[in-house]
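Changelog note: in this version the structure field was regenerated for every chain. One regenerated record is shown below for reference.
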Amino acid sequence: GVARREPRDAFETSCRGLAMACARLHAALMARAPPSTPSRACARDLGHRARTWSLRPRSRRRFASADDAAAAVARTIVPEAADAPRSPPEASAPRGAVVWFRQDLRLDDNQAFRAAVRAANRRGGEVLCLFVWSPDEEGNDEGASWAPGEASRVWLHHSLDALDRDIRRRYGDGGVRFVRGEHASAVATAAADVNATAVFASARYEPAHVEGDERTRRALAERGIELITLPGHLLFDREKIRVDMERERYFFGTLMPFVHAAEKFGGKPGAPSPAPPTAPVAHSSGGVGASTLESLGLIPPSDVACDWSAGLRAEWDMSESGATEAWAQFKRMGLAGYEDGHGRSDLTAKSSTSALSPYLRFGQLSPRRVYAELRDGGADGVEGRRLSRTFWHRLYRREFAYWQLGVFPELAVTSWRSHYESRGDWRWPERDPAAAEDLRRWQKGETGFPVVDAGMRRLVRTGWMHQTERMLAATFLVDYLHIHWSHGARWFHDYLVDADLAINSMMWQNAGKSGLDQWDVFAGGLVPDGSARTHDPAGDTIARYVPELAGLPPGHLRHRPWEASAKTLAAAGVTLGDTYPSRIVADVDAARARMLAGVLEVRAREVAHAAAAAASAGSRSDDDDDENARRTDVLVDVFTGADYVVAPPGSTVAADGRLLPLSTRKEFKRTLAKAESGKIAGAMGAARDWALARLDVAAT
């Protein structure tokens, strides 16, 4: 037995030695060889699966799912570039992933975060959580895509602090790496630190961000790193949405055609996913350029000096848990009564508001979760969308605003109804000192109209306004002070914690009567003189934010203190013009008439242009090719008096570049028909045959 065992032991020893030698030889050869590269066809195919809609052919699905993106990265080996921040690691080293947080400051239903975790898990690496603050790349205040305002920066600072704490508490002492610097460089460095060839982020939609992400994508690609952007901020793929006006009975630019188009072409919002139960989060400290949250400089110097954001911090829980609680409370207490009470601005009525807008703005609440929970069930098993159709449509209005920004990137600075830009009633604060003083009083809530002042003071104190207060304040600025809507849009952008370029710009365009919706249904309810006060019946909001009027009896005297007797004013400690400002507009009816005259002037000019073109065409030969060409330079319909807009590229199924009629205020149409004893109406009639033959109006 001993004799037979010895050869077997020697043979086994020899085999083990040979195996070890082969392993050492294989490792040496692999260390010297360059990393393998997939074929060109393979790389292109995987790229299509991993990239977002912005780089795909239109025939392919616009967004990669988190699962698809992670799987593609797990199967793809991308060689490190020679100029990468660090030397390429050995081929056998595990590969991690980077999740780049921007406007998606949550863990719940964060597709970019889930994809990064899945990719790292499959390849044995870690996930580095990254936030980069690059002031020069956040927006251009001189252009149409503005950087975050001061209130937004305060919210961003505190929400990032909360996100960092949430990640550390849930996944260990990893947290968020904060970097101040250029996007591409900071992201590339983070990728090198965890040996990552893929960076995951939620897609952004503001023009400066879209352009910046493409620039960063190209820079990273030169280093062998892929930037994969996934959906998360919106419900639908806005690039696919085309309004089919031939099938619509509503005007272009109203909500319902967009709703129909979004549901038909924009893809189905997927089911929300919870945060991953575990995640191999890399330690956030260290690394070139790593900083602290405080050193990013998000808190504005003015706040450092006087702590004006104390009111914001007292009003809001700027965390994902705060967002979750706000949504849960609204479902529990407010949703069932929202349909009847959503116009109330006195927050003692719990059904008057959801207060979700800043959480959606910064991605601390998933729109897919709100959508799914409204769709699938509400109070007593009733679908939330049936409990309040208005709130359900608010989700679509948010999508509608982003769609407008996509097809009309100048939304923040240029009117949809371009002929309204030349209204003669506009006053420009930059060259009119009186207009500048009126703008200042409006900004500070010192107009002498309590319904306006209460909302404006709430804005400064809390960073937020009720929707009705926003509409009242905006209407007052443009209709009664005659200051161009862009000045109000800038102020709101700086002071709102939920300042959203798309939503804010859409609202202000509509307030200025130059947007797609002229708020015709609200025309009688947005007067500033307190005659319409259903939004704050007792004046409780006025008493809270205009405390100098709190001593007046609840009701109409808080809205119209100029109607109080001298005795009542004295008892309340109110002296108009002293303790509370006198009204900035003495005659509101005359001020509104001036607005109507300004609108009439630009619309009548379009009719005159059509009439002149018709007269000119009548004197020319029918063989004149230029005269026979279809035109889009008349922006009022001479048949109905409605305004036209030229449909921008990518907005419709078959009407891009052609004229489409817009919903236009009835009083604007009546004024046009009656103006100059019917002369304008006569000009409209004279131009109709020409308009039928020469204007390029799309079928609706």
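Spot check on this record: Residues 127 and 433 are 55 Å apart (CA to CA). The mean pLDDT is 86.
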